[in-house]
Structure formats: structure tokens, C-alpha cells
Amino acid sequence: MSTPDPANGPRESLRYEPRDRADNTDLTVAVDYGSWSSAAAIFANRQVRDIFEPQALDLWGAELAALLGAESGIAEKVCEGLDSAARLDHRSPKLRIPASVGELLDRLGGDPGGLRHRLAATTAIALEQVLAYDEVNGPRLAPTLDDLYTRVFALPALSVQRLHLPALGRRDDIPDTDDLLDVSSVLMVAPKEVRSAHLRDIGDESKYEETDEAFPGSKRALAEPRRRGRLADRSLPFGWRADTDLLVGLSIRDLVKRVEFNALSSANEFELPIRPRLTQFVITFPTTLDPLARKRYRRLAHDALAVAPDIDPTAKPIAITMDWDEGVAAAMYFVLRSLSGFLEQGLDTFRSRAVGLPGRRGGWRTHMLVIDVGGGTTDIALLALDLVDLTAGDPAGPNDPPDLKGRSYTLVPRLLGSTGHPQLGGDLLTLRMFYWLKAAIADRLHADDPDHIPLAPAVLRSYDYRPVPAEVRAALRRLTPTHRTAEVDGPQGWQDAAFLRLWGAVENAKRNGVDSKGIKFRFGATHAADLPSGVAWIDALRAGDISIELSQADFRQLCAPLITGAARLGADLVRRCLGGDTSARLDIVALSGRTTTLPGADDDITEVLAREFERADGPGTVRWNPNGVIVETTHPKQAAAIGAAWVAGVNRFGFANRRAHGGDELTVQAGELRWTLPMSLGPAGAFGTPIPILSVGTRYAMTDPTGYASTIAFTRSAWQPLAASISLHRLLGPLEGARSMVWGHYLFPDSGGRIASRTLWYQAQIDQNLMLRLLICHGTEDGVRPLLHPDLGNHLASVEAMRLAEVEAARHCFEGDRLRGVPRIEVWSTEDPERTRTELFGAATAESVLTAATTTDGAFTGDSRHPGASLGQDAGRIGISAQPLPLAGSGKYTFAVDGVDTGIELHAPTFDPDIEVDGPDWATLDEYGELRIHAGYPVFRFVDSIDAMWHESGTVHLVDTEPEPAEPRPELDPFSGEH
């Protein structure tokens, strides 16, 4: 019997153990499955630990005393406000208020205990009240207080946000591993049966070995599965093949098992019920992973975690969430980091470094760039973070009675752009160190050869992010070979052994400190003894007295091309999104991933950003804060998992109300993260750089309420001439050899010379999941006029119309009863006091604006709204607005023509309640000058085949594109056998 196709056929669940279930605590688990190591984070649906632990509160009192002791004027005001502050702290109703500043400072710095803790909390509230009304000292002390709370509570205070880091090393069959927060991504598979496979634990000295039982690097095959012949002789679960998909599925299964074991065995430590249950699994993915690969990855995770019904018939499958790539997930961690712990101080700090939202009082915006350099990939995201005060009424003034309630805020993070590199990560640094070591060995072995040109300095001097200059690589293949000489699946003799010993030595050296002589790494006889014998250059190495040293300065030089390459990608993204916008400023540059914690990495990144942001060419200069560079050193590996767990938990469970106790309340509207297109897309141009037909920052504003084209928001390009083969590339950045990647490919099934007629056109459509599809339409050589569906177009359009023929300012645009030109038409929400205008149509000829067509021969044409229309009327010209109408709570809009307020108001359409429209409204304008509001984006007249589209001009056929996964470049893949 043939094995089912894993892409479509059923697969046996890899999960066999029934899960413990509880009635009151659900766990959301997020996993960052890495190239070399993996991490996880837990979000619980209820608070599990109080942040105010005794040790933290003791330090809090001492730090407040030190701060107030240096600020005598502020200390006096704080002392005066303690009585009202005590009423806000429900823990301090009977607190004895200090009579003077001196008594306050003495008691804050006095003996540890509950009374001191109460006074510290009350003093902090009073201090917040004082600084809230002080326009000078408030902003001045905001960073100081932020630093104070960071030190006291070790921000990010995960537990106050219901987050926990599980110890992934904790397994019942592996002792002394209960303190490991990450686990190796190398999968250990038993010789005969795969179901017992587990990840190798961090600290295993052989973690870089590839043996018959060890399988490293499976994440590198997410884009396209690779066969693993060594699995073929094992018993495989039904429906699975001997490939990397099975290895990834087994890895995910083991990660979840470790998390559950941790959560179940340490429930009392977390103050959880004895049996919490895992109900949601969140998995991040590389930014550059194409949509179809993401879909396959999601299904793979589902098949790995679903409970087999014959084991537990009552269990429900775990909900799988795959909404955030690793760059966005890391960005959400930094949002959490800036706002968690002492929330009020986090909000003050946010406001102190933000700019006001245009046209909105009580609104602030910051821009954040996140560069996450992992073991195998670089993931980059640029976000706008909008903080809005939703509290009714203005804050209490200095002379008003104190407001005993907190304020309500909402934070709206929006992804402006993302990019990355599928093979730019810590592995490349190790590979550069590996080639430096081989070059240094070759230089030592051939030091007496007058014709030998030193190779190690050439490796150091190379500023290319790729591991080694081509001429050096060729020389090393001859002098110190470790590359494979044949294609094999699995280890190959002394070549692999030599490579892995040298690789392991330099990989471990990356984490070493620097000795008193400034040396980062020494290679000597002990290392040489580990190499396989019987190889000429290795035997010669052992015979000599060898000592090779890598200084800290040279180590930084090896790091620089990798670090600066990631920085150049980030700078290019920011310039494309914010360049030339004088009102925008990049406020925060956040660095995560262990590679960014290497000495000097933040300085190198800052230098590159400063240089790139000063460039006036292209998009233009960028305003930024060079002091806003922060490096995550506490959780560099876990940042993406924490961020993903947090945003998923916030979306699912929300926050408890804090306002009644005097605290501020914050909600996070993470649903608006995917607001605009985060990338530029187009056919390849010179040097591999695409010519964009869709640009980063384009708003997702089109929705198709009928489901013809998409069930989520999407955007479309302008119509383009169709070629026989269409490849659309995603722009990545300026790195040579990696400027773009194919995001979707389509091969037109031509017959009868249809392409040669040059009358076929296409639109690129991309949705919020970055799924790329093409709309194909038959027009003429000069252009295309697609048909709008008459039925849907009518009953989803407003009954009311603005008739331009009746507007004085537009009458010059008519020739008879039809438009020969279109005036500038603007709209605003009638209830908007600012009357913020949106341009729907720009002034132009009717031919250039009315680019679609409509007919009146459908079932709903008896009440056709076109003047004089009747059944069977020829197609009429119609145009769709350049952008959607602004959102309006009342659904009522006012229009202007050529800048003149018409006084005409239209209501948004009402329609069949069975048709849901989840998105903004658009406007249509026909050749008779009638403008109507349309529910959602107008629907084209779709047909289900290429032939039907060809024979009925103006109809549209929708096709999927296929991914074209780029083969991993062997020179960047450490385990390709090329090195």
C-alpha cells in the first residue's frame, strides 16, 4: 500500500499520552523552534504570582529613599501627599503617615518587613501623583524611575503578566536538568523506532555531532522538506515520510511534552491548580518563510500535537496559532518589557519618549526597530506603537481634588515592515571562525614555504558577510581539507569528524570570556588530539608544537560583517518606511538573539544605522534616537517565545480591571498588528532587486464580503501585462546575493497564442497572511477594463447617491449626461470634528479614472440605479476610489468637490445581514457621475477557467501562485558538506 501524501492525506498523530485536564486554568504555550536551540514560554489565563515579593520590596524602599534624599523639593511634596496616596492603596488603610521628610526617609531605609513594604508602595503612588503634575521634573525623572523599577523588579516582570519560562531540561528520565530554559534542536532518534525521539539537552558535549541517531539542522528545511534516508529502516508513523517534516514534528512533540511536564510537576511553584491544561499552542516562524511553507508548517504542528481519539476520545485538539513571525514576536517582547512590572511608570516612560498622535489629544506614538539575530536566521521588524488615553474626561489638574481612579489606555502595535535573511545568523559567525582557524593552521604548517601567502589575515580582512573569500576557500580545500568528497546522507569518515571537532571548538569559544592578555580563544595540542588520525595535515599538526590564539580584537573583526549585514537590512527597511518623513522618528532599536549580546555588537549596529540614516539619496534621511539602542541580555534566546505567548494571551484573555484600585489599565489591541503590507513585491530587476508593483506600507483595506477572492483583508497592485511566466520577488535588502527571494511563481497554460496577443493582464493580490494570488483579465493591448459583478455590486451599494451633475463645482466635467473628466472628490466622517479629509478620486480624465465596467443584466437589475438602465444594457464605465472611506461610527459621510463643501451627506449601505463585511467601505463612481458607497471592496465578475476568461472580455480568473523555495546556499550552510 502506498504511503499517503503528507501534504494532503491523513497522518497518524505523533502524540499518544492523554493530557491532564483542569476546569479553571488554560495554558497558552509559545515555542521558538530554533536552528540550534529552542525555547518556550507559558501564558496562564489567571494571575499566578504576585510581583511584590519581600526581597524586591525591601530593595524598593531603599531605592526610593535614595532617590528622594537627592530630590528634597520633590520629597517634601511627596510627604504632603502621602495621606491621599494611602487611600489609593487598598493594602494601607491604617498606615501611620510620617510627619516629616526625615522620618519618611528613615522608615523607608529601616528594618525590612510588612510596614516598610506598605510605606514603599504608598510613597511610590504619591511620587507618581507629584510627577504627573510637574512638567519639568516628570520627564526629567522618568528614565531614572524606569531604571529604578527595572533594577528592583528585574523587568520584564513576567509573572505579573501571567507569563512563565518553563525549564525545558526538566524530564523525568534526565536528572539534574531542571534549570535549563532552552533545549538543543538536535533530535535523537532510536535505531528502530522513531516515536520515542527526543531533543538533545543543552550541555551534551556531542551536541554538534551527526550520527545515525542524531539529526541536527531540521529547521533549515522548513521551506522545503528534505529526505532523510537514515530514517527509512525505522518504523514510521502512518502517513509520515522519512524526511525533515517528521523530524520537525517529533521535535515539536518533545518540546510540548517538556513544557507540560514542567507545568504539571511545578504547579505549586507557579501557584497553579494541580492540573492545568494546554489549550493553545503558538509557534513562531522565520520572517522569510513563504506562505505555503507556513501553511504546511502549521498543519505539521497540528498533526504532531493532535490527540489520537482511540487514546482519549474526550480530548479536543490543541488550538494552533501561527500569526507572528520571529521578528514580530521579538518586537512584542520589547513592548512587554517597556510596559510590564510597574505599569504606571512604564506608561510615563513611553509618553516621555513618544511624539503626539496627529490630530488626537491624549495619544502618543513611538517607532521601534527590532533586529533578532538567531542561530540560523535574522528576523527584522519595524513597528509603530500608538498609546491612546481612553478615559472619559481630562486628568485632574494641580488644584483639583485628587482623582482616586486610574486611567484607561489602549496600546495599538502596527507592523510597518519586516525583512530578514534565511541564512544570516550565529552559524555564519561560527563558520567565519572555523575558516579563520583552518587558515591559521595552514599558515602555521606552511610558515617555512616562501611561496605561501598568509591566509588568516585575508579571512579577517574580508568584510563580506559570507564566511570566506573564494580564493582562500580554494586554498584551504587543498591545504587543510575537511569538505566531503561525495554526496552522502549522514556522516562521512574523517572529513566530517575533522569538521565537527573544529566546528565544536570555535562554537564553544564564541561564549568564552577574554583572559587578562586579551585572548578570546586558544587552539593547542588538546584540540589537535581530538582530530582523526591518518590524515596528512592533521598528523603534521600533531607533530609540531602548536598554539594558535584569537584575540578579542580579531574576534570582533570576524563578527563585524555578520552584525553589520543585519544592521544594513534593518536600516534599509526603516529608510523605505520612514525615510523623508520629517514627522516620524525612530525611537527604539531593540536587539535580541544571543549573537547581538556579543561584545561590541550594539556599537557596530549603532554605527551602521547612523551612517545609513544620514543618507539623503533614495527615500531620504531618517530622524532617530541613537541613545535608544537596547540589547536584551536577560532573555536573548527566549524573547520571541515570550512575546508570542504574551500577545496571544492578551488577545485571548485580556487584563484584569485595575482602575478601581487607583492603578492605570492597559489593553493591547494586537489584532491590528497586520495593518499594512510589510514588504515590497515585484518582478526581478537589475542585480536581483525587484521593481515594486506593491510597496511596503500599503494598507490592507480591501475585503470581499462574498468570499470570492479572500476572507481576510488584502491589497492589490495596478494591472500589469501578463507574461508566460510570472515570478514576483520579495525585497529583502541591500546584501549582495540576497537582495530578494521569489515569493510566488505562476506559469500561464498558454494555447492558441494568447500571450502573444498582448491582451492579457494581471493584478497581484496579497492578503494579511502574505498569500499571493493573481487576477487575470482579457483586455486590449492598451489596457484592461474588468467587469464588476452586477448583482453583488448593486445590493451592496448605498441606495443614496451623490449626483455630480447636480453639484455646481462639477458641472464643467460633463459632456452631455456623461463625464468627460473627474473632479477631485474628498470625503470625511460627518461626526469628525477635525473634518479630516480622504481623497477618493483625483482630478483626471474620465478615461483614466473609470477603469472598470458594469452591466445591468443580472437578477437584481429591476431596480437598477443607472439612469435609463434596462435589462441587457451594454456595459457602462465605472471607477473605484483610490482608497477606502475613513471609518465612521455613525456610517455617515460628507463630501467635497474640488475643495468645495457640497453639503451632501451619504449613509454607508445596509445590506443582507447574512453577508458579513469586516472592513472599510469603498466608493464607486460611474460615467453618469453617480457616486455610491460600497460595502467592502467591489467584486469583480469572476469566472472559473482560463478559457471562460479569454472568451468573455472583462471577466476575471483568480489563480494561486506556487512558491519557489530558494535552495539553501551551500557556502552559507555549515552542514552542507562543502566546508
UniProtKB/TrEMBL annotation:
Biased composition range(s): Basic and acidic residues: 12-21, 966-979
Sequence segments annotated as region (Disordered): 1-21, 959-979
InterPro entries tied to this protein: ATPase_NBD
Protein name, per record: Molecular chaperone
Species: Nocardia bovistercoris
